[in-house]
Specification:
single chain; 174 residues; mainly alpha; Rna Polymerase Sigma Factor, Chain: A; Arc Repressor Mutant, subunit A; 2 domains; 8 helices; 65% helix; globular
Length: 174
């Protein structure tokens, strides 16, 4: 498989990961573009598919961290509701409420928690691939994902975003 088409198959997942890190559509696109440029220019490219995928995610992560260092700006919670996909909204749709709640609460988590959830639960990397991407042991990944999921679940359960109650019609009335 040619390098270009190999990278193209990962672009949507890389974008999702980049967006979960930075919370900005344009910056996420820039991170993915930077990843693609670096990957295409690299001399030593992993041959093994899981190693290649982890390598691409590590490039995105490092590009994001480099951006933070250059700008000297701490990672902030995604305050913009720009990430809400208009196609997900249907009035009264419980799914929309659930998606909105999870997105808001995920954005409030510390970067380390968002990052591990994005790698494993959103991007679908294995624990081994996430460990390789982050440069940490598999056991650390397992404990981090457990803590991050627990914090996200607690945040969602205590969230102030709830479905509005629906008034029920009284029997016998039309």
């Amino acid at each position: 498989m040619k390098t270009r088409s190999k990278i193209e198959s990962y672009l949507p997942r890389l974008y999702g990961y980049a967006f979960s890190l930075c919370g900005n559509h344009h910056q996420a696109e820039d991170l993915v573009q930077e990843c693609a440029v670096k990957a295409l220019a690299a001399n030593n490219v992993p041959v093994d598919k899981p190693a290649y995928r982890a390598w691409l995610f590590r490039i995105v992560r490092n590009a994001f961290l480099d951006h933070l260092r250059r700008e000297k700006v701490a990672a902030s919670a995604m305050k913009d509701a720009e990430f809400i996909n208009d196609r997900e909204f249907w009035p009264g749709d419980e799914r929309f409420i659930a998606v909105l709640t999870v997105k808001f609460e995920l954005a409030k988590l510390p970067l380390s928690h968002r990052e591990i959830i994005a790698l494993i639960d959103i991007s679908g990397l294995s624990y081994e691939e996430a460990a390789e991407t982050l440069g940490i042991p598999k056991g650390t990944v397992m404990s981090r994902i457990s803590r991050a999921r627990r914090f996200l679940l607690e945040a969602v359960n205590t969230s102030s975003v709830h479905e509005l109650p629906v008034k029920k019609k009284k029997k016998g009335l039309k």
